[in-house]
Structures are given as C-alpha cells and as structure tokens.
Amino acid sequence: MASASESAYFTKARLAGRPVVRELPKFDLDAYIANYRGKTRFDRLLLIGTTSPLLAPEALRHAVSEAKQGRDVGRYDAVTAAMREIMPQDPNAIPDTVWKENVNKLVKAESDRLETELKGYKNNLIKESIRMGYDDLGQHHHRTGNLTESVKAYGKMRDCCTTPSHVVIMNLRLISAAIDQGNWLAVQTNVQKLRSPGQQFAEAQRLTAKLSAAAGLALLASGNYKEAAQEFIEADPRMVQARLDDPADEEAFNEVMTPNDIAVYGGLCALASMDRTDLQKKVLENSRFRAYLELEPHIRRAITFFVSSKYSSCLFILDSYRSDYLLDIHLQPHLGELYFQIRSKAIQQYFIPFSCATFAALAIAFDTDENAVEKELTGMIKRGNLDARINLFDRVLVAKMIDPRRKVHEHALQTAKEYERTAHLRILRMEMINAGLEVAEKGKAAGVGPMFENAGREHRYGISSASNF
C-alpha cells in the first residue's frame, strides 16, 4: 500500500516537471547530513525525501526528528504533509498536535519575554543593551521560522552599533537570514557593505571565506555562473580546517554550506563558464582553491580531463554524480543549465579543428547516440552557442565557411562609406554656418564657438581677417 502511494506521488511529480532521482547517490545519507546544521539541514532532508524514492523514508523520518528538535512549527507541518502523500501509513505522518501546541506556547512566551526586556533596554537608553536585545530577538525569530521579523530586528541593530565588530555581526546575521529567505539581492548587498573600500573592517578580514561563499551562492542562484565561479575559487582556504561539529568554530559555515560544497559549486560553475586556458590558470593552478578541490577529487579530475580535451571522460564523471547533485538544494534548479553549458563548450572545442563532422563521430566522442547528438546540436544552434549548419541527409555537422579576405574588403568599404558620409555632413554644416542659415539659441550668436562666430560675422560684413593689418 505504501509503495503504491510512493510510486503515485513520484509519478505525479515527474509529470509536473519536478526532478525525480531513481538512482542511489554515492553519498551516505547519515554521513552527508551530519555535516550541516540549522535550517539548511532540515531543508536538505526534505528535498531528498521529496525527490528520491529510494531515500524518501529515511530522509523524511530524519526530517521529522530534526523539526521536533527545534521550535519552527512550519517545518514540522511541511514534513508531515509530505509524509502523508508519500508514506501515509507511517506513524510520523500523523501530526503531533500536543507538541505543536506546547511549542507555540513556548515561542509566544519567549517572544513576549524578549520584547519586554527590549523595552526595558530602550528606557535605559544604553545602546549596547538595545543592540543585544535586538540581536536576541532576531535570532529567536530566525530559529522559529519568522524570517521577516528576524530581518527587521537585525536591521534595527544598525543604529546601536558602536564598534566595527558590531557592524560585522549585524551584516552576517542579515546575510544568513537573507539566504534562508532566498533573497539573493539582499545577500549581495550585505556582502558588498562588508567589502566596501571606504569601510575596512578588520574583523571582516577573518570572514573572507564566508563572504566569498555567500556571494558565490547568490550569483549561482541568479544564474551568473562566471562571477559565481570567481567568488568560489577565490574563497579563503581557512574554511577547509573548520570543525563542522563545533558550532562555536567561527570558520565553519555549515549552516549554509560546507567546504565540499564550495569545491563542487565552484568547479561546475568554472566548467560551465571558463575556457580551457582559464580553467588551467585560475582553477587548477590556484593555490587557494586547490585546498577545496582536494576534498572532491572527482571535480578536479573532471576539470583536468576537460583541459586535456578528454571531453568524454569529463562528461562521464559528471554524469556519474548527477544523482548526487540533483539532491543538492542549491544545485538542483541549475544543474540542467550547467550541464548543458559544459557539454556545449565541449562540443564547440571538439569541433574547432574540423570543417565538418559526422553525427557518428560526435556520438562516439561524447559517448551517446546519433539521435541525442542531433537534438543537442539543434538546441545549441538555436541558442547561438554553435555557428554551424546541420546536413540531415548525410547526417553531418558543417561549419560555416568564412572568407577572411572578403571580410577585410567588406570592412574597408564600410569604413570608407562612413568616412565619406561624415565628411559630407561636416562640409554641409560649414556651408550652412557661412550662409547664416544656422538657428542660434536666444542671446547667442550663430555658430559653434568663437571661431565659427567670427567666421559668420566676417562673411556677413565682408570683413577679411587680412584687413586688420
């Protein structure tokens, strides 16, 4: 009964266009999810549970446990609603109304206490106490899922910040809340405030890895893969040494992402947006990013194969990890486009030395069939990624032949025509000024500048400059 219900849910999801991962990923769920904390831990479990039929039971049970350890009733409602659709016979699918009522009472009592304390701090007019009161209230709203009120509380800390470290803490809080909201413009804005040349925060220098990761994530979410790659590959390697199991470690950023995620996101964005020269110099030879690549050696191998023109090996590695990436909360919406860009670049690079190539040769080179090659080439040509034509009769991809001499002649003729037109317009203007046909502004003589003004006056009165002598 449960399996039939699961099958129906995921079939419906696939028909609706949502991704469904039927293969087991390479990671172990318990080991994978142990690297995260906070809201992203729950969000990743819920995504896996609603995307992978094989991991759904385990992931959703973990998600229920994670939700009940916190005070965000909205998370609990979301996971129980998913369980009722996917595995309705599971006991956890029935909402625990007693727990929800108790948590709501605790949240309200805590909110009232913090607001009362904040009013007292305001009456005392002590800025540091007011700032800490807003900070505590913002963190409380953040933990309980009220992100809008959390951002408001963090924003009100600004007037009470008396030291640079206070400004840094406030902006980090706003970045974290904006990431959970999916407000990527706010993420970039707050990152730039800490990077502003006019305000050098010594405390922010220790957080450059977090700022690069947050900025890269915002650019990735916006579809700006090249700039996202630049942010990720320039991330400070100190985050690699962070203890993910220690919430007090300032270098850890696992409430958003781990160093492994930086390696994967940066590597995929670089493959999708950089040419082979840049991949070699900016990625493989980058000492800062090398520390992250060592955590995900398959990404380094894929980039090395691409730089070495071994495109089929590169694409094989990426395809073997497709299931893992489809279960990543930040990669899933962009994976199709990233893979398309990487394959498009590989085909472009492969085709450069040839005037034509058969579908059969392309299918062998990229480990696929001819029909898939035809569909992919058609899509690339329509999007302007490939300047070539398809001969369906002979099943051949033909490069557009360009005559360099003809292009030079056409450019020279166009330049001559533009020069002739410009010269004609200038002569025409000079004649109009000399004839006194120019319409001048009120209170200003005809002509442009004193030279033309004098020339017009000399022409009207028959005065020659030589008559002054």
List the helices and strands and how they pair.
Layout: H1 2-15, H2 29-33, H3 39-49, H4 56-69, H5 73-86, H6 97-124, H7 127-143, H8 147-156, H9 164-181, H10 184-195, H11 202-205, H12 208-221, H13 225-233, H14 259-273, H15 276-284, H16 287-293, H17 297-307, H18 311-320, H19 322-326, H20 335-351, E1 356-358, H21 359-365, H22 370-382, E2 388-391, E3 396-399, H23 404-434, H24 449-461
Antiparallel strand pairs: 1-3, 2-3
Would you write up a description of this structure?
With 469 residues, the protein is mainly α. It is 66% helix and 2% strand. A three-stranded antiparallel sheet has the order 1-3-2. A hairpin with a 4-residue loop joins β2 (388-391) and β3. The longest helix has 31 residues, at 404-434. The N and C termini lie far apart (113 Å). The relative contact order is 0.05. Residues 1-5 and 446-469 have low confidence and may be disordered.
